[in-house]
Amino acid sequence: MAESTIFHLAADLSHIHTDYLWRSKGCWEGYPYYGAPDLYEDCARLAARGVMDLLFFGDSANTSENHGGDHHAAVQYGMRWPKHDMMPLVPLMARAAKGVGFGLTMSTTYQHPFHVARLFNSLDHVTGGRIAWNAVTSAYKNEAANWGYEEMIEHDERYVKAREHMEVACALWDSVEKDAIVFDKQSGIFADPNKVHLINHKGKYFNVRGPLPVMPSPQLRPVLIQAGQSPAGMDLAATFAEYQFVSRTTIASMQKHRAKLDELLKAHNRGPRDLGVFWSIRIQVADSEAHALEKERAYIDSIPPQAGLIELSHMYGLDFSSLPTDMKLSEVAAAVKAQNVHWGSFMEAIETSDPTMSIGDYGRKNAIGRTLALRGRPKDIVDRMEEIHDATGRNGGFILAKGIEVPGNLRDFVDYVVPELQRRGLSKAKYTGATLRENLN
Ligand SMILES: Cc1cc2nc3c(=O)[nH]c(=O)nc-3n(C[C@H](O)[C@H](O)[C@H](O)COP(=O)(O)O)c2cc1C
Predict the structure, then answer these.
(1) Confidence (pTM)
(2) Helix segments in 302-428, DSSP class H
(3) How far is the CA of 255 from the centre of ligand 1 (A)?
């Protein structure tokens, strides 16, 4: 349960090479390439310097073939491709920096809950209690084909499977009681068998006997994060999640989201403070508005004109290259829904944009504007963050998301924005807890 009302701070390191950032001057400057371990260790040190709570890795294990019917556009432009498995970087980063926590994504559709539960227990031990699991249902096409499925499971059914998955994972983390390990060298007793339980789960998707053959970890279970935005996704978050990642571009839409979440939490006998929200933002900070706009222009100029439609194809599973660019957003809605992918965020797009906007214009807008951009001097950025935080119940914080140039953007945030946040008492000046969950409180 998060009691404090200060800002929690996170950064999403999932897309630091894709989304055309590989073209950008500020990306991985001084490092050989985006996968270099030194870069991530330095990011962890930077984040710890800014007393940030979380560095996050998203994941989707696919190569998009949606645009033009093959993998060429994704590969040619480096659009969400390639995607390494970032898990091995977490222990390295945890050794490099104290305090900051790490979020890792694993799929409830394709990964087995026994594997997920065991791996996150190990990561919790290795990081000293600083790990979070972003549980996703995997909405991208082609992931199914990589994991051996003929077809993608239907949207709401993926959430049925996710619910069972998370129930099993939680039961496994609970299967060894906190004080089960006794280590009594005198009597030769290692652990108390009465405190270690089979779970004997037999369900629609999983059969798991248990117990989890592990020692309880510092947090007992990872901090649970869920980012589904559809009605089924929101309901899953309201059942299990401690934090949610949410992308919204207007305060009205954030408030609507928060109100919906609070209503669902109530239905699950939980309160608003049981689930905090990290709102996605992108920042361009400089000593003047004009300089911030210059930086923004350099970022926008690095994005090729084709990007908008390629991204829409990737995200919404439809081949936007085959549609007339003057087609209206509202005219493609039914076709997008039928793709069975990210319906939640398309619904949001229609509600917050002009539904008569052409898909060409929307694509261009979406490529740079899906994440709320805050530009200006540190004071201007913090004013806006404070406005959002106040308007949404001071319950969570912000994640630097899509479009983040590292290390440049992260360093600017830590060196210019964080001091202003700390000066106003809005974010922590030091880590207060030993674990991620305690720091997020
Ligand atoms: C900030 C943010 C980060 C996300 N990260 C991932 C991710 O790493 N992998 C993934 O498959 N989906 C990711 N998602 C997508 C959601 O988890 C969810 O699968 C998607 O919104 C589709 O579900 P829905 O139809 O319930 O909205 C992310 C969503 C948001 C808003």
Answers:
(1) 0.94
(2) 307-316, 329-338, 343-352, 359-369, 378-391, 408-412, 418-423
(3) 20
**Per DSSP, which regions of 97-233 are E strands?**
101-107, 131-136, 181-184, 189-191, 201-202, 207-208, 223-226
Atom in ligand 1 nearest the alpha carbon of residue 226 = 17
User: Which tokens hold the place of 235?
Assistant: 């309901």
pLDDT in tens, the chain (441 residues): 567 899 999 999 998 888 788 888 778 888 988 889 999 999 999 999 999 999 999 999 999 999 999 999 999 988 889 999 999 999 999 999 999 999 999 999 999 999 999 999 999 999 999 999 999 999 888 899 999 998 899 999 999 999 999 999 999 999 999 999 999 999 999 999 999 999 999 999 999 999 999 999 999 999 999 998 889 999 999 999 999 999 998 999 999 999 999 999 999 999 999 999 999 999 999 999 999 999 888 888 888 888 888 888 988 888 999 988 888 888 888 888 888 777 777 887 777 778 888 888 888 888 777 789 999 999 999 999 999 999 999 999 999 998 888 999 999 999 999 999 999 999 999 999 999 999 999
User: Could you tell me if the CB of 343 is within 6 A of ligand 1?
Assistant: yes
List 184's β-bridge partners, or say none.
189
Q: How far apart are CA 317 and CA 287, in angstroms?
A: 41
The encoded tokens of residue 423 equal 């000066």
- Nearest-CA residue for atom 21 of ligand 1: 228
Instruction: From the CA of 136, give the closest atom in ligand 1.
Output: 17
Ligand 1 atom showing the smallest separation from residue 278 Cα: 1
234-268 CB burial, b ≥16 within 10 A, e <16 = bbbbbbbbbbbbbbbbebeebeebbeebbebbeee
Question: What helix, strand, coil percent values describe the chain, rounded to 5?
Answer: 45, 15, 40
Mutate to test the pocket of ligand 1, among 54, 104, 136 (most ligand atoms within 8 A of CB): 136
Burial class from Cβ neighbours inside 10 Å (0-12, 13-18, 19+) for residue 414 reads buried
